[in-house]
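Hi support team,

I submitted a single chain yesterday and got back a structure, but I'm not sure I'm reading the token output correctly. Could someone confirm the output below corresponds to the sequence I sent? I've pasted both exactly as they appear in my results page.

Thanks,
R.
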Amino acid sequence: MNASHELSETQAFLVLNALPNLGPVSLRRLLDAFGDDPLAILHASPGELEQVKGVGSTMSQSITAWRDKVNLAREEQRLAQAGARFVTHRDASYPALLRELYDPPIGLYQKGEYGFDRPGIAMVGSRKTTLYGQKVARTLATELARARFCIVSGLARGIDTAAHEGALDGGGPTVGVLGTGLDIIYPPENIDLYRQVEAAGAVVSEFPFGRRADRQSFAMRNRIVAGMCAGVVVVESDKAGGSMITARFAGEQGRQLFAVPGRIDQPTSAGCHQLIQDGAKLTTCVDDILAEFSYLEGLASTPIAAAPETPADQAGPPMSAVEAKVMAVFAGGERLIPDEIEAQTGLSIAEVNTALMMLELQRRVAKQPDGRFEVVS
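Hi R., thanks for writing in. Yes, this is the structure output for that exact sequence:
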């Protein structure tokens, strides 16, 4: 009996996933041709393998000589040492929406016990973000977590970090999808966040241990971020940012796409504004997102869990000086348009609009159908 038939199915998937020269599309074609049987692929002859579209001699030789390419014992030892497991696309805990892709990962390396039993919302954006972007991302993620969504992001600097932190603030699970192997934490300053995400949810990667980041790996990571989620929220991105790649994947995969507007003179908002022009839903508060997912089981009438009670004079997140100045004009119960607020405060219209957006996210004010704002009672 061929030695490859002594492997378990999971081991065979692990070998195929770790082989060089085998991309997701080639793996999908091979599995389709061999009845989704990884053992049959490892047992096939070069001639049989090369009958599959896109499989040439280099790829077939890599598969037939897999023992020279993959140290299976070392790979399993690394999994054990990391406290991780390899979840194949056949396992019940594999993200259900990810199976819908044309080229889903055949398996994910996973640390953390999260079972992907909540609807996922991806939140992505610039690494070089503004304080405004960080605050919006964190607030939205917190409120989505309280509404029983799982926040998915890439554990990178900027918006990714704010999204994970917001999900943790909201007490919900969060998933970090890496563009490296699980043993490579990038950026290194996020090691504590990595551990918190693992404890509250999961850290996953389709890449074997030791795989370092490159342009291709981040693009592959972005397709997973979008693919495992019902929707993608872009908070800040320039027109050429990696988040725009995630947004493109979301469109191709039929996911809901949301974009948060920002300042028109801010380069990190240009991508979001482009997405809004192209049809993404303009998003200024969590209700804009929740309205699109009322059809999901268990979410139609699920209120956002209340935050821990605080003294009345400390209710809600702290306001900036500009936000407090805008809030003060509503003291008499007024209903005002932004131009009127600009006239009363002496602030620029951009400052007023930004402050109103933040106050809406904090549930302090609400915009009425006639365009006027008033305090939420």
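A quick pointer for reading it: The domain at 110-293 is CATH 3.40.50.450 (Rossmann fold). Let us know if anything else looks off.

Best,
Support desk
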